[in-house]
Amino acid sequence: MGGFPTLRMAVRKAGPVVTDNSNFIVDADFGEIADPVALERNLIACPGIVETGLFCGMVACAYFGNADGSVSKR
């Protein structure tokens, strides 16, 4: 899939970040994602991956804070 995964390490304790369900959190850099829906589908199909942070199909718009203090909606 072309991502570069990194195990998220804890800041205030030794070792990796672990969820309430004892899962590890892995951050993966995919660069610019051309088809996020397909990427999410492929990731979820991998054994051991519980969830992604892509949130496809969950929102109708997003609000962005801009450097000049304005807010844009897409």
Automatic annotation (TrEMBL):
Keywords: Isomerase. This is Ribose 5-phosphate isomerase. One of its GO terms (molecular function) is ribose-5-phosphate isomerase activity. It holds the Pfam family Rib_5-P_isom_A. GO terms for cellular component: cytoplasm. It comes from Blyttiomyces helicus. One of its GO terms (biological process) is pentose-phosphate shunt, non-oxidative branch. InterPro entries: Ribose5P_isomerase_type_A.
